[in-house]
Amino acid sequence: MHFTIQREALLKPLQLVAGVVERRQTLPVLSNVLLVVQGQQLSLTGTDLEVELVGRVQLEEPAEPGEITVPARKLMDICKSLPSDVLIDIKVDEQKLLVKAGRSRFTLSTLPANDFPTVEEGPGSLTCNLEQSKLRRLIERTSFAMAQQDVRYYLNGMLLEVSTDTLRAVATDGHRLALCAMQAPIGQAERHQVIVPRKGILELARLLTDPEGMVSIVLGQHHIRATTGEFTFTSKLVDGKFPDYERVLPKGGDKLVIGDRQALREAFSRTAILSNEKYRGIRLQLAAGQLKIQANNPEQEEAEEEISVDYNGSSLEIGFNVSYLLDVLGVMTTEQVRLILSDSNSSALLQEAGNDDSSYVVMPMRL
């Protein structure tokens, strides 16, 4: 194997692929990246056995084909440290990878390509083409609500649900739920659900950077695969039953509050400073045309904010974890938001004013 490549052309896919590779691996080959040269194309593959990422680069010069695996982190650090306009010459010689650039020389250890595991491809059951920007928006609007290390492992991921011409993403950690839907050209009538693990979702969002580009999604029985011109990303699915999110969405709330998103966000942020650091509880008191926000902590410190809102129902007092409310307001984009409540023991439903494609549920706290 022998090829030359501009540093910039190599660094971009290498950084993406190295992001998948885990630093502490039980199998040495898993901390390596697989380099394959075929014709005028170089492909780079990284995996941790749960997710796999293949990046592709066209080579400008004719190359000598071959395949080898080398330490991902070291190769990336070498590329990063070289001048930006340099041409890199890479070849395999006696089971070592020789990297030359300008007056720099590096010799890296290798492991045979045959040792490199591939994520098994199961049968793909459903394929759709989506705009990268729309899929990224779907993930960004919901991924904050995924659980992090819950024993209910199916919560440490995101539900993707496909039904007639709609793709829906749902995430919940048991205390809050985020749901977002988008129109998608899917000719599938019956509902199809998969749970993508947390790492898979976060990696996928990182890859969807082309605002004009498309991404092809294949949902198989055990894998989800996303392909663009530059990369192919594969993630195992979580085997489990996701909670019925439709039962969690509050129905029949009779108290509708409409407020300025930025003003609410700022008021919550200020009040949060003096909330209990562990429980992050704040108290909301609703009266006609006004919302009072209060927080206190074990040191007997108190914060209070008053904000004008569009509300003319009966008065209500309810407690929430302020972090959950701030997370929701942080991903919304409209100027006005609506908050639907029923009583102090029922979950709140938050939505953008005049836009139904996203819904957020936050459970109340006893204060």
TrEMBL record:
Q: Which Pfam families match?
A: DNA_pol3_beta, DNA_pol3_beta_2, DNA_pol3_beta_3
Keywords from the named record: Cytoplasm, DNA replication, DNA-binding, DNA-directed DNA polymerase, Nucleotidyltransferase, Transferase
Lineage, opening ranks: Bacteria, Pseudomonadati, Pseudomonadota, Gammaproteobacteria, Pseudomonadales
Signal peptide range in chain numbering = none
Q: Where is the DNA polymerase III beta sliding clamp central domain?
A: 130-244
Q: Organism's domain of life?
A: Bacteria
Domain DNA polymerase III beta sliding clamp N-terminal span(s) in chain numbering? 1-119
Native organism is: Pseudomonas mosselii
Name by which UniProt lists this protein: Beta sliding clamp
| A GO molecular-function annotation | DNA-directed DNA polymerase activity
